[in-house]
Amino acid sequence: MKKTYKIDVDCANCANKMELAAQRTEGVKNATVNFMTLKMQVEFQEGQDPKAVMEQVRKNCKKVENDCEIFL
Fold it and tell me: How far is Cα of residue 11 from the mean position of the Cα atoms in its chain?
């Protein structure tokens, strides 16, 4: 399952950090961040709860870029 989320991030480098943090989150099959459109697309592994996984993605992204935001 793939879902797209609106994000708020200040620069392209920060968006890249968010993308890497999301990709390393358990339950995420793939994640991409587009700085120009301020969107994050997340593909979840089979059988994962998207809400629970996205809460962990948000926490992981805040660790690398504390002023970013993901609108769930």
Answer: 15
CB contact set of 3 (below 8 Å; sequence gap of 6+): 41, 42, 44, 50, 54
Q: Is 63 left (phi over 0), alpha (psi -120 to 50) or beta?
A: alpha
Q: Amino acid identity of 31? A: A
pTM (2 d.p.): 0.94
**Residue-wise pLDDT tens digits, 30-48:** 999 999 999 999 999 999 9
Q: Do residues 18 and 68 lie in contact, with contact meaning Cβ atoms separated by under 8 Å?
A: yes
Please state the length of the chain.
72
pLDDT digits (tens, 9 = 90+) for 11-32: 999 999 999 999 999 999 999 9
Which amino acid, one-letter code, is at 28? V
Q: How many helices (H) and strands (E) does the chain have?
A: 2, 4
